[in-house]
Amino acid sequence: MASEEFIPVGKISGAFGVRGWVKVYSFTEPRGNILEYSPLFLSRQGEWIEVEVSGGHLQGKGVVMGLANVTDRDQVQPLIGAELAIRKTQLEPADEDEFYWADLIGLSVENLEGEVLGKVDHLLETGANDVLVVKAEKQAERLIPFVVDDIVKLVDLDNKLIRVDWSKDY
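Above: the chain sequence. Below: its structure as tokens.
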């Protein structure tokens, strides 16, 4: 399967206990939502392998989960750092004027004057609003607040374009 069919939802960050459970840094909001996805896929040497979650819960600021056929701490060690993902088709369709971050990454960003500002490299969550991190060759990255109507005037997924009210000099 092509990697673009998958959306990262977390990363294995360590071992938990002696029975082969893993600590997971969840990318979902809220964090515990990662436990709602079935199946999950694990990245191993560039391939996505389906894994069965045998249990899990919130633990402090993180998530811990059991994976079928992983029964002791030694089996967890090679998994540390592996990404966990779901198929894009497992997501509910976004509402109008709502977008999944994964859909925005790689889109070209231009301002109202038609000047290309770069491409969306990733997004940041700041609390007040999300922020587009836009990179262009030989330029410092730009941080553009993702505020629909005020700053973000158009998101055109079909044409891979975001139009913003943002000066090239900012």
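The two ends are 40 Å apart (CA to CA).
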